[in-house]
Specification:
With about 270 residues, the protein is α/β, with parallel strands linked by helices. The protein is about 40% helix and about 15% strand. It is built from ten helices and eight strands. β1, α2 and β2 form a beta-alpha-beta unit. It is globular. About 40% of the residues are buried.
């Protein structure tokens, strides 16, 4: 992906107005579907979209903080260009060899797609390294060298509730519990935030009126089972994307991921500009 020059990092006011309107529309849809008092986190999925789109939403009068990316290199580029106050989410498929550099992004707020203990351990290694680096910098007398404290990295365990071979994730059952327990007990620089699924969109589209996607129902059941066994902080549900987030919210999702509903259609990867 091409990187912008300094002159390209400006906000187009007409584009910004459209993005803010789109974000507001999605937020209102979430509120209408949410029949409880809980706060639903909206991740604006900005993959293959330019950094100035993100900047427009992050610096508007009601700034948005949570943005999602799928590719390590693109996220690294954007994180280096944009304010540290952005809370990045990695929502793409994880590769073990890329977990350590991913976790070393200081304002990476969450990784949504952990599906093996090996990947969790690689994330732990990266987060431990940057935490030590920040602690060392902040321990010096030189005020100019101090940096923001690095938080524990939140992670969701991805569960394949649809049974589709094309989707990553742990199969519902003991494997989910074992991975969650491993993260809780063996990775001190990670924080188990909850469970995530990418439900089959066809099931959401083909539902009869009054029915909900069974993949979302299954994730909720699995979360309740894990919560009962592990106890501790309440585990969140991350489910629902542009085509089915309202159903997910009705079923209790704490977080939804919306891209095209906010940013519009994406370019081809080879044509995208950071």
């Amino acid at each position: 992906m091409a990187s912008p020059s300094d002159s390209e990092m400006h906000i187009n006011l007409q584009r910004a107005k459209q993005l803010i309107e789109n974000l507001s529309n999605v937020t209102h849809q979430i509120s209408a579907a949410n029949k409880t008092s809980r706060q639903v986190r909206l991740i604006a999925v900005s993959k293959l979209k330019p950094a100035n789109d993100i900047l427009a939403l992050h610096t508007c009068p009601n700034p948005h903080h949570h943005f999602g990316e799928n590719y390590l290199q693109e996220l690294q580029q954007k994180a280096s260009l944009l304010p540290r106050s952005i809370r990045w989410h990695f929502i793409g498929a994880l590769q073990t060899n890329k977990c350590k550099p991913l976790a070393e992004i200081p304002n990476l707020w969450c990784v949504e797609s952990v599906d093996t203990a090996k990947k969790a351990e690689a994330l732990e290694k990266g987060r431990a390294a940057i935490t030590k680096e920040s602690e060392t910098a902040n321990g010096r007398d030189d005020e100019a060298g101090k940096v923001e404290t690095v938080e524990r990295l939140r992670v969701f365990v991805q569960v394949n509730t649809s049974g589709e071979e094309s989707k990553s994730g742990v199969e519902p059952g003991q494997g989910v519990l074992q991975l969650c327990r491993h993260i809780r007990e063996k990775t001190p620089h990670l924080r188990l935030q909850g469970l995530m699924t990418i439900g089959a969109i066809a099931r959401s589209q083909d539902l009869e009126e009054g029915k909900e996607n069974e993949d979302f129902i299954r994730l909720k059941e699995v979360r309740d089972e894990v919560q009962k066994e592990l106890g501790g902080d309440e585990l969140e549900l991350s489910m629902g994307m542009s085509g089915d987030f309202e159903s997910a919210v009705r079923l209790g999702s704490d977080e939804v991921r919306v891209g095209t509903g906010i940013f519009g259609d994406r370019p081809r990867k080879e044509d995208a500009i950071v």
